[in-house]
Amino acid sequence: MSSDSISITRPDDWHIHLRDATALQTTVPHTARVFGRAIVMPNLNPPVISVAEALRYRDRILLAVPEGSAFKPLMTLYLTDTLLVQEITKIKNEESVLAVKYYPAGATTNSDNGVTNIENVYPAIAKMEELGIPLLIHGEVTDTEIDIFDRERVFIESILEPLLCKYPALKIVFEHITTQDAVEFVKSQSDNVAATITIHHLLYNRNDLLAGGVRPHFYCLPILKRSIHQQALISAALSGSPKFFLGTDSAPHSRSNKETDCGCAGIYSAPAAIELYTEFFDNHGALDKLEAFASFYGADFYQLPRNKDKVSLIKSTWTMPENFMLDDSVVVPIREGQTIAWQINKD
Ligand code: NCD
Ligand code: ZN
Q1: Does the residue 58 lie in any domain?
Q2: Is 346 labelled as part of a ligand binding site?
Q3: Is 266 near ligand 1, meaning CB less than 6 Å away?
Q4: Which of 51, 130, 166 shows the shortest CA–CA distance to 98?
């Protein structure tokens, strides 16, 4: 299917980092300009570990939503070794807190308070399984002896499979998957296991990060993998399977924190997220698969209503700015200074 315009049900972003304080002035408008809802990651510093804190964070986000946008942030709690079962129970009664995020300790940005041993959180997970609360997983082991390109595959064998054996009905979103192994794992599981796929893992592979020079703005976690894995993600996104849906993992860091001796992980895609997903589906002759991936399958998985209104996009080139203000610094977005083939139709 090929066309110069498309109208889809308003999409949602099922995985985003909005940060806090003045950064919200940048991140929230970028996401709220098009997405109806977004699942907001709790890896602030300190992390969001209670329902009360999640609701206060939500209020700060809402203050940054531009007028005229009906954007709804959906909040998450950060799973620590000591998160109490009572806190899980509170989530069930709170419409705008939806899920719990699992970071293995040390896996990524602000994950120092993450889980040190999965068995420590089995009581909390048992409660989540009972109440139908999704566990959102950053699926990488952190053992220093495991190669960074193998950390997702090893996580599947050593953590995810045993977890699902013990809690077979647990709702799991395997976040930002990056390997063929993850695609196959998710496909092999029943309906309670799904995955988000970022636009950068669909568009790029590790050559974009490393060949001809190190490009710190392509450094994210899980790290970009070799091309066969990228191909597996592309096939999964185009397959029309409801197990795979949109989650940008848009994760801004200041330019100085990226372009330095030990740069932070994260790619800032929010300013062009839906445009780039549209370009991607178009380039694969699969525009007819965009709407379900971006606007249906995530809502269905979370048992939320699909958005009612529509957004339309037109095939018309624009140039992404070189950077945006972020706090008192700047953030360099995906495709900075380059063209993007699709844009939102504002008429
Ligand atoms: C995220 C961040 O910066 O918060 N970084 C990233 O590379 N994706 C954390 C995460 O989701 O791993
Ligand atoms: Zn993330």
Answers
A1: yes
A2: no
A3: yes
A4: 51
The CB density around residue 113, as the number of other CB atoms within 10 Å, is: 19
| Dihedral, CA of residue 206, residue 211, residue 216 and residue 217, to nearest 10 | -70
Residue 339 lies inside a defined structural domain of this protein: no
Backbone dihedral angles phi then psi of residue 267, each to the nearest 5 degrees: -120, 130
Q: How far apart are CA 1 and CA 24, in angstroms?
A: 37
> Could you report the per-residue pLDDT of 266-320, keeping only the tens digit for each?
999 999 999 999 999 999 999 999 999 999 999 999 999 999 999 999 999 999 9
Cβ neighbours of residue 275 closer than 8 Å, sequence gap 6 or more: 313, 340, 341, 342, 343, 344
**Quick check: CB of 108 below 6 Å from ligand 1?**
yes
Three-state SS for 18?
coil
Taking Cα atoms as reference points, which of 41, 32, 59, 12 lies closest to residue 271? 32
Residue at 222 is within a domain? yes
CB 304 within 8 A of CB 22: no
How close is the Cα of 74 to the center of ligand 1, in Å? 18
- Catalytic amino acids? 249
User: Is 185 within a domain?
Assistant: yes
Is residue 239 within 8 A of residue 304, CB to CB? The reply is no
Range of the domain at 49: 16-272
What are the pLDDT digits (tens) for 137-152?
999 999 899 999 999 9
Q: Total domain count for the chain?
A: 1
**Which residues are bridge partners to 135 per DSSP?**
100, 172
- Could you say which DSSP state residue 250 is in? B
Supply the DSSP symbol for 150: G
> From atom 11 of ligand 1, which residue's Cα is the shortest distance away?
249
Quick one: which ligand is closest to 40's CA? 2
Here the CATH number for the domain that contains residue 112 is: 3.20.20.140
Protein residue whose Cα sits closest to atom 9 of ligand 1 = 109
**Residue holding tokens 């740069």?**
263
The continuous run of DSSP H or E covering 342 comes out as strand 339-344
Q: Is the CB of 249 under 6 A from ligand 1?
A: yes
pTM of the model: 0.98
112, two tokens: 């120092």
